[in-house]
Design brief:
Layout (H helix, E strand, L loop, with lengths): L1 H10 L10 E6 L6 H13 L7 E6 L7 H8 L7 E5 L1 H9 L9 E7 L4 E5 L7 E4 L5 H12 L5 H11 E4 L5 H10 L4 E4 L1 H7 L6 E6 L2 E2 L5 E2 L9 H9 L6 H15 L3 E5 L5 H13 L1 H10 L5 E3 L1 H11 L4 H15 L26 H14 L1
Parallel strand pairs: 1-2, 1-3, 6-7
Antiparallel strand pairs: 3-12, 4-12, 4-13, 5-8, 5-9, 10-11
Length: 379
């Protein structure tokens, strides 16, 4: 363990010169995860636009994928060569768990404006769904509740209906076990980000798309996904129930799916990082390069990039969705329907809502070591 800790410290050390840098992209999940797959795809293309620099991916998993992001907030972001790769579960945890990190303290390098696709087995009984539980899957559970239960008044009614139709199964520690269970039919519904869906679900002859959550637009609305047209939750809901979804449950669903999906694959540095402009420029060039576009679309699908200031603006749009009612109802459904220990965080409506003045400091090697030790202690 001591050797492993020292190796991790060394990978986070600044190496290079004024002419070349080694950038470490921190993924808060295990190798093979959906976020790891996506990051590997993108970094392979991005490297061509930073030819003098080295881009490295480092996986630092921890409980509910939170420890690495907390470490970035508290320590690692002050190293100008470290880039945080956030994913959707981090957005859900930000809304309803006691985490240290705050997106308003960071600067966006860029984010892919992605979606989450929910697949089902061809033989799935939608009156009795078996679905793997995890905190990042709250939007999927809420989407299912809306589709299955239709117009209802209260969160309590949706909670009861959800429990009648969905078996929310704990115990799947990694994506490999979950994907195998879905392939075997032990799980009847599963969901993935676009890259993982193409790799693991689209190739399964016994599965098909059930619904997706739509793609967040600059004005705060959600559009149908052209990669999976006609399968947006709202479209299917209206076709089934004869009216558009609305009400407290839907408002909370929009809140949590927006945070989860818009932030699910994003690159961040500390606000004021002097390398931000260089990284943003490289990502912008990559996003316009025909070879890079073709390579990424082949494995992920056709999705747009939101880069630099546009990414910061997208983050600020998300904060506008937060209301006291939608936040309280989200916490209530997570606690009572999903057995997630969610907490109402009033500070999201105040002190966390506004971008901060850039704060920088010298990295403290002892602090980084203590942070890494805490990851293993809490994992």
């Amino acid at each position: 363990m001591k050797k492993l800790l020292m190796a991790l410290v060394l990978t986070l050390s600044i190496t290079g010169s004024a002419f070349a840098e080694t950038y470490t992209f921190v993924v808060p999940q295990k190798p093979g995860s959906g976020t790891t797959i996506w990051t590997e795809i993108v970094l392979k293309e991005l490297q061509r636009f930073l030819p003098e620099d080295t881009l490295k991916l480092r996986n630092f998993p921890g409980a509910r994928d939170i420890p690495a992001v907390n470490a970035f907030q508290n320590e690692l972001r002050f190293d100008n060569t470290i880039v945080m790769v956030s994913h959707g579960g981090n957005g859900v945890s930000f809304l309803q768990e006691q985490v240290d990190y705050n997106y308003a303290d960071w600067e966006s390098i860029g984010m892919m404006n992605l979606n989450i696709i929910v697949g089902k087995r061809l033989d799935a009984d939608l009156e009795n769904i078996v679905f793997a539980s995890k905190s990042g899957r709250v939007p999927d559970a809420m989407g299912m509740a809306l589709l299955l239960c239709g117009p209802m008044g209260s969160i309590a009614e949706y909670t009861t209906c959800f429990k009648e139709h969905v078996n929310w199964v704990p115990g799947f520690g990694n994506g490999g076990d979950r994907r195998l269970a879905f392939k075997r039919g032990e799980l009847t519904v599963d969901r993935e980000n676009p890259a993982a869906y193409k790799k693991h679900v689209a190739s399964n002859p016994d599965a098909e798309v059930w619904f997706h959550h739509g793609i967040l637009q600059a004005d705060g609305s959600h559009a149908d996904d052209p990669n999976y047209p006609g399968k947006q939750m709202e479209i299917l809901y209206e076709a089934k129930w004869g009216e558009a979804p609305s009400g407290p449950m839907y408002d909370s669903y929009v809140l949590v799916k927006s945070f989860r999906d818009a932030l699910q694959k994003a690159f961040w540095v500390n606000a004021g990082n002097p390398n931000a402009e260089k990284l943003q420029k490289a990502l912008l060039e990559m996003s316009k390069d025909e070879k890079a576009i073709a390579a990424i679309q082949k494995k992920v699908g056709k999705y747009d990039w939101v880069i630099g200031e546009q990414g910061n603006a997208r983050r600020d749009t998300l904060m506008s969705f937060v209301t006291e009612e939608s936040l309280r109802n989200l916490v209530a459904f997570s606690n009572n329907a999903l057995n997630i220990k969610a907490v109402y965080k009033s500070k999201i409506l105040g002190e966390l809502a506004n971008p901060k003045v850039a704060v920088t400091k010298e990295p403290e090697k002892t602090g980084i070591l203590n942070t890494i030790k805490s990851w293993f202690k809490n994992d």
